[in-house]
Design goal:
Layout (H helix, E strand, L loop, with lengths): L11 H4 L11 E2 L33 E2 L3 H13 L5 E5 L11 H5 L5 E6 L2 E7 L7 E5 L2 E2 L21 E5 L13 E6 L10 E12 L11 E13 L4 E13 L2 E6 L4 E3 L18 E3 L2 E25 L2 E24 L6 E8 L2 E8 L7 E25 L4 E25 L15 E7 L2 E7 L11 E27 L5 E19 L2 E4 L11 E2 L5 E4 L11 E4 L1 H8 L17 E2 L9 H5 L2 E20 L2 E23 L11 E2 L5 E2 L2 E24 L2 E12 L11 E4 L4 E6 L8 E14 L2 E21 L14 E3 L6 E3 L1 E27 L10 E12 L2 E4 L6 E4 L6 E11 L2 E10 L2 E4 L7 E4 L2 E11 L4 E8 L6 E4 L6 E6 L3 E9 L1
Parallel strand pairs: 6-9, 38-43
Antiparallel strand pairs: 1-2, 3-8, 4-5, 6-7, 8-9, 10-11, 10-55, 11-12, 12-16, 13-16, 13-54, 14-15, 16-17, 17-20, 18-19, 19-22, 20-21, 21-24, 22-23, 24-25, 24-26, 24-27, 25-31, 28-29, 30-34, 31-32, 32-35, 33-34, 35-36, 36-39, 37-38, 39-40, 40-43, 41-42, 43-44, 44-47, 45-46, 47-48, 48-51, 49-50, ...
Length: 976
C-alpha cells in the first residue's frame, strides 16, 4: 500500500468541517458521487471525461482513514452535484460524534443554530429562520413535533445518519418548500458499504459542570450506539440496523425579563411642546421578570433499519425505517416577579427612553404586585416515525423508473405543570392571610445580571411564611402525519446539448391536529377561601441557595411536588367549585371555576393535499470549448388546504350548534363545527448551471422561484368574535386557514477553486421575498360579510332598548407584510499543510464566513415604543473556524462558531420574538486510534460556557440571560 501527498480531494474540509470520525478505510478512488440518492433515478451512473468530468481511471489513488475519508466523500458530493449545496458525510454509521444533526449542520458555511437549553435545535440558513427550512429523510418529506414545518434536528441522532446535504438552490425534481434551503438527511444503503460486514459500537460518558449549582439536577449522562451493515447472497441482499441512545442532563440558570405590556405615568411629566411623542404622559412598564434554576434529563432513543435487495443488475428494492423517541422531564424553580401594572406605586424610576428599566415597586390595594415562588414540572414526550419503500428499475439502457411510497408521523405530548406559592403573614394561622406588604426594587443592567432587592427576601425560604396557593396543568398535544406517493422517470438523450430528461409526479396527504386542555385549582395572586392554600412541612421542602454570578439572589424553597400534592389532596385532586355560572356558553357539570372555552377554540385539525409534477432537462454541452452541465426545469404544485373551525352561532341548533367536550369534561354549546380553506396552484421554474473554467475551477449559477408554506399550526382555525356592551363586534384569530405561502425569486453565483492542498469557494446570493406573515388589526371589519354569525342588535340590560351592532376590529394573521431582499456573500477556505515536514504535515485549517443583509424589517413593541427589528434568524456575520491536527492515529481539533446578533423567539417565553446578542461557541475534541478496531475520544462542548443573551429592542431592556455549562465527553469506539 502506498501513500500520496493529499490531493485536491482533501479540500472537502472546505465544505464539511466535520468532527473527527474514528474509523478506518482502505484506499479510495475519487469518483463522482450522487448528491441526491433518493431524488435521482440512477445513483450508479458513471461519468466520463469527454465533457470535462472526472474519470475514475485518471484519478490518483490515495490511502485515507477516518476523517479524511469522510471529507473526500463530502467534497465529491459537493463538487459533482448539480445544485449549489453543502455536503457532509460519515464513513460509517456512528462515525459522527455530534450530539445531533443540528450540531453537525452548523459547521457548514452560511448555517447557524438557535440554542435551546444549550443544544442546537433549530437551524438558520442564509439569514432565514427554521420555518423557511424544508427537510427530508431519504428524499421524503418529514413532519415535525413542533407544530411548524421545520423539524427538530436534535431528534435525529448523528450516529444513525450517513450523510447530509443542504441544497441552497433548488431544482425541479426536489420537493418544494425550502425557501431558505432544503436539508436532505440520508440513512445507510447497505449494498453501498465498502465491507461485507460492518459493526460499530460507541460508548461515551457525559458530565455537565454547571449541574452542581442546581439543586436536584443530574450531573452525568451517557451516549450509546450500535450499528451493523451486512451484505448477503453474493451481495444482492443488504441489511442495515442502528440504535442510538442519549441520556443527558438538562441544566440552566437563568434570568428572564418579560415584555413591556403595561404603562403608567411614573415621572409626572407630559410635555406636549414638541408633540406627545416627545414626552408622553405614560411610560412603559414590564410585566416583571423571572429567576430560575432549570434541571432535568433528556432521553433520546433512535432506531434505524434498512433492507436492500438487488436480484439483478438493473433493479433494486429498498425498504427503510427510522424512529426517534425523545422524552424530557424538567423542572424550573425560583421566582416569578409581577411588578403590578399601572396601579402599582413606583418610586425612583429609571428610564431607557420611554421604558422603565428600574425603580422601587410597592403594592397598592388595586395592584397585583407580588413575588411568586414557582416549582414548575414540565414533561415532553415526542415521537418521530418515518417509513418508506423505494424501487428503482433500469428498464432499458436509456429509461429508468423509480417509485417511492412513504409515511412520516410525529407526535408531541407536552404537559406543563405549575405549582405556585405565595408569602403569608403567618402560615400557621387558622385562616392564613396573603402578605400584601410587598416592595420590589430592581435595576436592569442590559446584558448583565440586574440589581435586585425584596423586602420579603427572608420569608422566601421560611415554611412559616410560604404557602402553596395554586396548582395547574396545561396539556398541549400535537400530531402530524403525511403519506406520500412518488413516481419518477429519467430518459437518456442522444444530444449535443442535453444528456437526459426527467419528469415525475408526487401526491401527498397531510393531517395536523392539536389538542389543548387545562386544569387549575387555587389562586396564584393570593389565597382562595374556597380552595385554601397548603401549609408546607419540613419534609416537603429544601432551602436552595444560588451560586456563582447568581449568588446574591435570595434563597427559596424547592418543593417536592408529589409530597405537596398528596398532602393537599389526600383523596386525589378534587374538582373545583363553580363560581362563574354559565358564562360564554360554558356548561359546568364538572364544576370549573373559570371559562375555559379557549382550550376548545385552540384545538382542531388542518388538512393539506398536494399534487406536484415536474419536467427537467439535464444539460451536458460545451460553451466556447468549456464544459457546461446543469439542469433547467419547471415544477407545478396544486395545493388544497383546509382546517376545522368553530363558528359562534350563539348556541342555535338550527345553525349547527353542538355540545363540544374537551378531555377534562368542559362542555361548550355556542359553536358549530365547520371546515374552511382554499386551493391554489404554483409554477416554480428553476435553472442550475456549472461551467468548468479549468481542471481546478468551476463557476456555478442558479436561479429559481421558490416557496415555503406557512407553519402548519398557523393554518388552524381558532376564530372568536364577541359583542361588547356598546354593540361593537370585535374578533380575533391567531391563525388563518386562508394563509398563502411565502414566495421568493432567488439567484446564486459561486466560484470554486481547488489547489493541491486545499480549496477556496466564494458565493453570492440574492433573494427577493414577496411577503411575510404578520398579525394585524383590521378596523371596521365586515364580520357578517365574512360569514360570522353575529346579531343585528343587542338589548341593553338596564333600559331594555335595542342597540344596533357595529363592526369593530378583527385581529388575525395575514400575508400582507411587505417583503424585500436578502442578499449576502459566503467564503470558505481550507488548507491542509501536507507539504510541511513530518510531523507538521498533519496540520490543517478549515474556515468559512458569510455576510447577510436584508431590507426586511418588522416593528416590535415588546420593549415599549415600536422599534424596527430585523428578519427572524438573520445574523449579518456568521463565521466558523476549525484548526485540526493528525499524527499516527492521534487527531485533535478545536472549532469556533460565531454569529452576530439576531432575532428569534425568546427562550421559555412563547411568542415573544426578541433580539439576541452575538455569541461564540467553542468546542474541542481529541481522539486516538489504538488499533484498526479500537479508538478513544475526549471532547468538550461549549468550552467557554457561552450563555445566550437577549433583549427587547435595546440592550438596556434585558430579555433572557441563560447559562448552560460545559459538557464533557469521554468514550470509546469499536469498529470491525
Amino acid at each position: 500500500m502506498f501513500k500520496l501527498k493529499p490531493s485536491v480531494l482533501t479540500l472537502a474540509l472546505a465544505a464539511a468541517g466535520l468532527p473527527l470520525a474514528m474509523v478506518h478505510s482502505a484506499a479510495f478512488a475519487a469518483e463522482p458521487q450522487q448528491s441526491e440518492p433518493q431524488q435521482t433515478s440512477d445513483p450508479t451512473e458513471k461519468e466520463t471525461d469527454n465533457q470535462g468530468k472526472l474519470n475514475p481511471e485518471d484519478v490518483e489513488r490515495i490511502e485515507v482513514t477516518g476523517y479524511r475519508r469522510s471529507l473526500i466523500d463530502s467534497l465529491n458530493a459537493k463538487r459533482f452535484g448539480d445544485t449549489v449545496s453543502e455536503q457532509l458525510s460519515a464513513d460509517d454509521l456512528g462515525a459522527l460524534p455530534d450530539v445531533s444533526m443540528a450540531d453537525a449542520l452548523t459547521r457548514l458555511p452560511g448555517i447557524s443554530a438557535v440554542r435551546t437549553g444549550g443544544q442546537a435545535a433549530e437551524i438558520n440558513i442564509r439569514g432565514m429562520s427554521g420555518g423557511f427550512v424544508f427537510s427530508t429523510l431519504n428524499g421524503r418529506e418529514q413532519v415535525s413535533t413542533s407544530g411548524s414545518r421545520s423539524i427538530e434536528f436534535d431528534q435525529y441522532p448523528s450516529e444513525l445518519i450517513n450523510s447530509a446535504a443542504v441544497y441552497k438552490s433548488p431544482k425541479a425534481s426536489l420537493i418544494e418548500g425550502g425557501l431558505a434551503g432544503t436539508v436532505e438527511l440520508a440513512t445507510a444503503s447497505p449494498l453501498a458499504a465498502d465491507k461485507e460486514h460492518n459493526v460499530t459500537l460507541n460508548a461515551r460518558g457525559m458530565y455537565n459542570d454547571r449541574a452542581s449549582e442546581v439543586y436536584g439536577a443530574e450531573e452525568f449522562g451517557h451516549r450509546l450506539s450500535f450499528s451493523y451493515q451486512g451484505k448477503f447472497l453474493d451481495e444482492t441482499l443488504g441489511v442495515a440496523l442502528g440504535y442510538a441512545r442519549l441520556e443527558q442532563p438538562s441544566v440552566a440558570t437563568q434570568f428572564i425579563g418579560l415584555a413591556y405590556s403595561d404603562n403608567k405615568d411614573v415621572d409626572g411629566l407630559a410635555d406636549d411642546t414638541n408633540g406627545p411623542e416627545a414626552n408622553p404622559a405614560n411610560e412603559y412598564i414590564s410585566e416583571g421578570f423571572e429567576m430560575q434554576h432549570l434541571g432535568g434529563v433528556e432521553v433520546r432513543n433512535g432506531y434505524m433499519g434498512a433492507i436492500e435487495w438487488a436480484p439483478v443488475s438493473n433493479f433494486k428494492l429498498k425498504a427503510d425505517a427510522f424512529l426517534s423517541r425523545f422524552d424530557s422531564e424538567a423542572f424550573a424553580r425560583g421566582f416569578r416577579v409581577k411588578l403590578g401594572g399601572p396601579t402599582t406605586a413606583v418610586a425612583n424610576p429609571v428610564l431607557d427612553g420611554n421604558s422603565v428599566i428600574g425603580g422601587t415597586f410597592n403594592r397598592t390595594t388595586q395592584s397585583y404586585t407580588r413575588v411568586e415562588l414557582v416549582n414548575d414540572d414540565n414533561q415532553d414526550f415526542d415521537q418521530v416515525n418515518s417509513f418508506g419503500v423505494n424501487a428503482d428499475w433500469q428498464i432499458t439502457d436509456r429509461l429508468n423508473v423509480a417509485a417511492d411510497v412513504s409515511y412520516s408521523s410525529a407526535k408531541s405530548d407536552f404537559r406543563n405543570g405549575l405549582l405556585w406559592s405565595n408569602v403569608a403573614v403567618d402560615a400557621n394561622a387558622d385562616k392564613p392571610i396573603f402578605d400584601e406588604n410587598v416592595s420590589i426594587s430592581y435595576l436592569l443592567n442590559g446584558l448583565d445580571l440586574p440589581d435586585l432587592g425584596f423586602n420579603q427576601a427572608d420569608a422566601f425560604s421560611d415554611i412559616n411564611r410560604v404557602m402553596v396557593s395554586k396548582y395547574g396543568i396545561y396539556p398541549y398535544e400535537n400530531e402530524d402525519e403525511v403519506t406520500a406517493y412518488r413516481l419518477d422517470f429519467k430518459y437518456d438523450l442522444d444530444s449535443d446539448w442535453l444528456s437526459s430528461v426527467e419528469f415525475g409526479v408526487r401526491w401527498s396527504d397531510r393531517t395536523y391536529s392539536n389538542d389543548r386542555s387545562v386544569f387549575e385549582y387555587g389562586n396564584d395572586g393570593g389565597f382562595s377561601s374556597t380552595q385554601p392554600p397548603l401549609r408546607l412541612t419540613q419534609d416537603m421542602v429544601t432551602v436552595v441557595d444560588w451560586s456563582g454570578d447568581f449568588s446574591y439572589f435570595p434563597s427559596y424553597l424547592a418543593i417536592d411536588l408529589d409530597k405537596a400534592l398528596n398532602a393537599w389532596f389526600p383523596e386525589g385532586i378534587p374538582q373545583p367549585v363553580q363560581t362563574w355560572g354559565n358564562a360564554d356558553g360554558v356548561l359546568d357539570p364538572m364544576g370549573y371555576t373559570t371559562n375555559y372555552s379557549w382550550s376548545v377554540l385552540q384545538s382542531g385539525e388542518v388538512y393539506e393535499k398536494v399534487l406536484a409534477s415536474y419536467l427537467m432537462f439535464n444539460i451536458d454541452t460545451e460553451i466556447g470549448g468549456l464544459p457546461l452541465t446543469g439542469n433547467i426545469g419547471l415544477r407545478v404544485v396544486d395545493t388544497d388546504q383546509s382546517a376545522t373551525m368553530l363558528q359562534n352561532v350563539g348556541g342555535d341548533p338550527a345553525q349547527g350548534a353542538q355540545y363540544i367536550v374537551d378531555e377534562n369534561g368542559i362542555v361548550n354549546d355556542l359553536y358549530a363545527p365547520t371546515v374552511v380553506g382554499t386551493t391554489y396552484t404554483d409554477y416554480l421554474p428553476s435553472m442550475n448551471l456549472s461551467l468548468k473554467l479549468t481542471d481546478d475551477s468551476q463557476l456555478r449559477f442558479a436561479a429559481a422561484k421558490v416557496m415555503a408554506r406557512p407553519p402548519i399550526n398557523r393554518l388552524a382555525g381558532d376564530v372568536s368574535a364577541s359583542v361588547n356592551d356598546d354593540g361593537e363586534i370585535n374578533g380575533s384569530s391567531t391563525n388563518n386557514p386562508f394563509l398563502m405561502p411565502f414566495y421568493a425569486t432567488q439567484y446564486d453565483l459561486s466560484y470554486e477553486y481547488y489547489f493541491e492542498e486545499g480549496a477556496l469557494v466564494a458565493a453570492l446570493f440574492y433573494k427577493d421575498i414577496d411577503s411575510f406573515i404578520d398579525t394585524v388589526a383590521i378596523d371596521d371589519f365586515d364580520f357578517r360579510g365574512h360569514g360570522f354569525n353575529v346579531p343585528d342588535y343587542i338589548v341593553d340590560p338596564v333600559s331594555g332598548e335595542q342597540i344596533e351592532t357595529t363592526n369593530g376590529t378583527y385581529t388575525t394573521a395575514v400575508n400582507n407584510t411587505e417583503g424585500g431582499y436578502i442578499r449576502g456573500l459566503e467564503l470558505a477556505y481550507t488548507q491542509v499543510f501536507a507539504s510541511l515536514p513530518s510531523p507538521f504535515d498533519g496540520l490543517g485549517v478549515n474556515t468559512s464566513y458569510s455576510y447577510t443583509d436584508s431590507e426586511v424589517q418588522k416593528l416590535t413593541s415588546l420593549g415599549g415604543d415600536s422599534v424596527p427589528q430585523t428578519l427572524e434568524g438573520l445574523s449579518k456575520h456568521v463565521a466558523n473556524l476549525t484548526l485540526f491536527y493528525g499524527y499516527e492515529g492521534f487527531e485533535t481539533r478545536i472549532s469556533a462558531r460565531y454569529r452576530s446578533s439576531f432575532v428569534s423567539e425568546q427562550v421559555a417565553i412563547n411568542s415573544q420574538v426578541v433580539n439576541y446578542d452575538a455569541e461564540t461557541v467553542i468546542d474541542y475534541q481529541a481522539s486516538y486510534q489504538i488499533n484498526d478496531n479500537l479508538g478513544v475520544l475526549f471532547q468538550v462542548n461549549n468550552l467557554t460556557d457561552e450563555p445566550t443573551k437577549s433583549y427587547f429592542g435595546t440592550e438596556a431592556k434585558t430579555g433572557t440571560l441563560q447559562y448552560f455549562g460545559r459538557q464533557f465527553f469521554l468514550g470509546v469506539t469499536y469498529a470491525m
